[in-house]
Amino acid sequence: MNTVFVALLLGLWAGVSMVLNLTGLGVRTALISGVIAGALVGDVNMGFQIGATCTLMSIGFYTYGGATIPDYVTGAMFGVVAAANSGSYDIGLTIAVTLSLLMTQMDILGRASTTVFQHLADKALANNNLGAFDLWTLAGTLPWILSRFIPVFLGVLLINNIQAFADFANNVKWISDGLSVVGKALPAVGFALLLSYMDIKKYWPFMVIGYVMFAYMGVGTLGLAIVGAAAGALYTTTQQTGGAE
To answer: Which backbone phi and psi does 143 adopt, to 5 degrees?
Structure first.
């Protein structure tokens, strides 16, 4: 697919999904965005891989109190496009993580710009001008949209510039080996962050069962997720039944 067209579609998705996420729909996730990017570049499997890894790394992060966190959703899109262009998952994931951190600056800019429209809406409401109030309130979504659309659109247009880096990295053994190690370590960091938020002392049997299924029985990530969801539902139901009695 044409690079400009891919950049435009991903930019629009990045901006619109940001606003939809603010409404509570929750469609703006690293996994969904990674799969969409993968479909556009013709490599859905790569989209699943990088999107899932970025999702793991983002678990436990949330904008509590308006805090700025790494934007793994945008990073996942960049990573998938970069991986498709370079043919390397490790390079794609490295770029995804790097740009996720850089996107925190755009998040701050978007949040700060929104306050301008909010003050204008407050002023319109004080003057009982409901039409202007509605207009300025809706206009307040523009910074959110543009803070994602602009970097994604321009970034994907310029993503071909990483080809020189990709070729260099693939040809220099110590760099390619380093990227491979980083690519394998990042999912472990995501799991470690997730485990740090869990009450392992209380729920350690579930962790042990999951480890045995993965390490000794060869159950994949999707299978573990399904079993985990079923075990969680069974545990919740048992607890509720026991409490009712």
So the answer is: -60, -35
Q: Number of helices (H) and strands (E), helices first, in the chain?
A: 11, 0
CA distance 211 to 201: 16
Q: Report whether 37 contacts 77 (CB < 8 A).
A: yes
Among all chains, which residue has been given the structure tokens 């009695």? 245
Q: Is the pTM of this model over 0.85?
A: no
Q: Which amino acid is at 132?
A: A
Quote the CA–CA distance of 76 and 46 in Å, as a whole number.
10
- What are the residue ranges spanned by the domains of the chain? 3-197, 200-245
**What average pLDDT does this structure show over 146-168?**
76
What gap in Å lies between CA 140 and CA 133, rounded to an integer?
11
| Distance of alpha carbon 81 from alpha carbon 10, whole angstroms | 10
Cα–Cα distances (Å) from 198 to 31, 84, 102, 191, in that order, read: 22, 35, 28, 11
